[in-house]
Amino acid sequence: MHQPAIHVAAIRKAYGRTVAVDDVSFDVQPGEIFGLIGPNGAGKTTTMECVEGLRTPDSGVISVLGLSPTRDIYALQERIGVQLQEAQLQKRIKVREAVALWASLYRKPADGDRLIEQLGLSDKRNAWFMTLSGGQKQRLFIALALINDPELVFLDELTTGLDPQARRAIWDLVRGIRQRGKTVLLTTHLMEEAERLCDRVAIIDHGRIIDVGTPAELVRRHCPEQTVVLATDDVTAPAHLGAIPEIESVIVEGSLLTVRGRAADLVTQVIGCVAEHRIRVTDFRTEVPTLEDVFLRLTGHTIRD
Amino acid sequence: MLRGLWRLTWLEIKIFVREPLGVIGTVGVPVFAFIAVARLIGPSVRTGSPGVPRFVSVDLPIFTSQLIAASSVLSLVTIVAIYREGGILKRLRATPLRAHTILAAHVLVKLLTTAVTVTLMILAGRRYFPLEADAPIVSFGLGLLFCTVSIISLGFLIASVVPTARFAQPIGTAIIYPMLGISGLFMPLESLPPALRAVAHLLPFTYSVSLLRGIWHGEGWLNHAGDVAMLTLIFAACIAVSTKLFRWE
């Protein structure tokens, strides 16, 4: 088995009496997008900044591309790209100047003009940083994170504060980074972002990792029940559906039936039953549990609390 | 080690020039204030004129240069504080740029603006205070840059620790101007109480005033080797301490 891109073992970081990160361990494999997900203040950024070498954990071991972020930081900086939460640049620096400055800092820089073009900033090349929109600023920060053609890219709360359209555009860019064979470690408090973007996620709350897996795995493991909601005037429907062994409950509210069960093929069974008994259905939808539900189940609170 | 220094310096110069108010405040205001004062009192004042404070009639070049150095320190402190508060320093930290490269770039920008301001003042002031033919302008200019580097290193130290941009200016002012007050410019060091005199001997302004005054009045650098040594020592000490204390965020 090959070496993981990031190996984190039992790190802990406290600020005074507040323990920000407590016994956190995870591995990130080369070529995957790995997400640290959890509410604000859960310890995601502190964990990431320890991995980036910006902070030193009180205890524990971190290895990034086989290097130590504290001892080998200079060697490591050539091989990683970093986008930080709430970072800014000089107000009056131009986009192309920032890219050129960053390019001058690394031994083997990528083509800055091409990056500007790929990130859709060509018509903003000569714009001052302060005049850019939130989405443009984040795209510039992605360009800066990619300027040294890094093997590993860190993205911290990349789309926070962006409108949905800008967010989707950024997601496409991050997928593009993975397609170029790079590894991505990102943090987000948006479960939808994690679900759409991440190959694997670690759920983190109060400084501890609660579980790690692919979004689908986590949903299956923690929220296996499926829900089908259908609308029908057929009064025999609840009885027919209730006769299916895998179905745990059928709740009737007027003409709306909510059917719950744990079988993987619950939807097929419901459709089969409806067809067999010629039940006339006027509406039909499934409710699939999401990472949001997983988070609620695991922590007892929603991610926005 | 200093990778990116020239590009960053050049960039910071351009960024500085893009803010008209900053340029006017840093370069324009001192020059115009100088001209205004010179027009008011200029014609009547000659070296050693009676009834005019000594620091105007004799030490005007030194007084002016120290004020410019002091304002360089203050603006350095403020800029670093703004960069820290805005997360700019933090972003730069995650690159191969080092703290001393960033500070060095800002010092170079400050030295350049100081040089430009002083040059403009000399040109503008010529009408009111004609330079004596043998005034050691070049030597004085070099001396001023040397002193400014040492004084700015004190700014490094303050800039490394001031918590927020809002406090940077008042804290800097509260520290810098009293130093100027006991630098020997306004009253001889000997007339200071012993405690203040001891403090004065630790401050760069004291040696800066002594060195520049010496150069202006035609004494050689060698006669002021002690001042040069102390300014170098203060510079080294401030840099060493501020590198340890430097806060990125």
Write the layout of secondary structure elements.
The complex is a heterodimer of chains A (305) and B (249).
Chain A (H helix, E strand, L loop, with lengths): L5 E10 L2 E11 L4 E5 L6 H9 L6 E6 L8 H5 L2 E4 L11 H11 L6 H7 L15 H13 L5 E5 L7 H16 L3 E6 L2 H7 L2 E6 L2 E6 L1 H8 L3 E7 L4 H6 L4 E7 L2 E6 L4 H11 L4 E7 L3 H9 L6
Helix pairs in contact in A: 8-11
Chain B lengths: L4 H13 L2 H22 L12 H4 L2 H26 L2 H6 L5 H27 L11 H25 L3 H17 L12 H7 L3 H13 L8 H21 L4
Features:
heterodimer; A: 305 residues; alpha/beta; Rossmann fold; Alpha-Beta Plaits; six-stranded mixed beta sheet; four-stranded antiparallel beta sheet; elongated; B: 249 residues; mainly alpha; 11 helices; 0% strand; globular
Structural class determined from secondary elements of chain B = mainly alpha
The arrangement of helices and strands of chain A along the chain is: EEEHEHEHHHEHEHEEHEHEEHEH
The CATH class label of the largest domain in chain A is Alpha Beta
- Domain unit count of chain A: 2
Biggest sheet record of chain B: none
Oligomer: heterodimer
Share of helical residues of chain B: over 70%
**Structural class, from secondary structure content of chain A?**
alpha/beta
Low-confidence stretches of chain A: none
Q: Give the averaged pLDDT of chain B, no decimals.
A: 83
As for the number of domains of chain B, it is 1
Distance between the termini of chain B: 22 Å
Number of helices, where a helix is a run of at least 4 consecutive DSSP H or I residues of chain B: 11
